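User: I'm putting together a teaching handout on how multi-component assemblies are represented. Below are the sequence lines for each component of a complex, exactly as they appear in our records. Could you produce the 3D structure of the whole assembly as structure tokens, so the students can see both representations side by side? Please keep the chain order the same as the input.
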Amino acid sequence: MNDGVASHIRALFERHGLRCTRQRQVLYEALAATKLHPTADELFQMVKSRDEGLSLATVYNTLEAFSEVGLVRRLACAKGTGPCRFDADTSDHVHLSMPDGQIRDVPEDLSQKLLEAIPPSAVEDLERRMGVRVGGLTVQVVAAPEAKVER
Amino acid sequence: MNDGVASHIRALFERHGLRCTRQRQVLYEALAATKLHPTADELFQMVKSRDEGLSLATVYNTLEAFSEVGLVRRLACAKGTGPCRFDADTSDHVHLSMPDGQIRDVPEDLSQKLLEAIPPSAVEDLERRMGVRVGGLTVQVVAAPEAKVER
DNA sequence: TTTCCTGCAAAAGCTTTGCAAGTAC
DNA sequence: GTACTTGCAAAGCTTTTGCAGGAAA
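Assistant: Of course. Below is the structure of the complete assembly, with chains in the same order as your input.
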């Protein structure tokens, strides 16, 4: 029983070597549909009305499985402490971290402007000199905690 | 009793409105002396031989106090989960996150090359359009988890 | 002397894990 | 049928907190 399903999700999972379970579908759909970069628990709250009996542990396990195959991205919150957040948009884009721990997407054009500015030569230098392969580059803008009055 | 102390630390604390206690001195010195970006617990292990009776809770409280006044920086590890790390170097510089959770500094010249590439106009745009004041911009390079063989 | 800091222990918050039952393939 | 997933509960790890005693200013 798993047939009335948006078949692109099934295909997506298959392509990543993931079995297609009801819980995974619901969770992936919910995560892909929101721009809120929810925490595991927030996502759990969002879907538990739609899937009685779903367990928070499954949410964690599922998000871990998704992250492992690159289907979603784990976002560290800038504060360093607190729960981590998840994003089904795995394309390169810049995040804005709010003082309260929320994360927002920076608009596409600005995001691109920031990412394109990174000189590839510097990244190559870095790989050579530090003896690593660069898997990704994260640019995170941190909003100032002060009230947003003009100073 | 707090007089045989490197007076620059005392002055540093005073300038930031922090009382100068033995524990804070020891912790700040240890953090400033290492390039390892330790977690709270690692720092605790590093100093507890030098300060019997020091409590891990105090390490946390102290690092929190330091962070609040900008004396140290909290680093989120790129994995999203796991303990956070601390850095007494608050100047703008780029970090390299290793797959095992460690964090290394990117050499000064490369770091600068990356940071200088960020167009200030994009940041200003972002402030205007998202209605926030940008408190900081974090560039984090994530090393690929694969073995560092040449491909 | 007033206020803040420390240590301890306990609690809280986030995430992972063991296991038996269930499901996908 | 086999291997993987789920739900539950329990454990694990990281961080915070309450409080009484102690130290800094």
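A couple of points students might notice: The domain at 91-146 of chain B is CATH 3.30.1490 (Dna Ligase; domain 1). Chain B has six helices and five strands.
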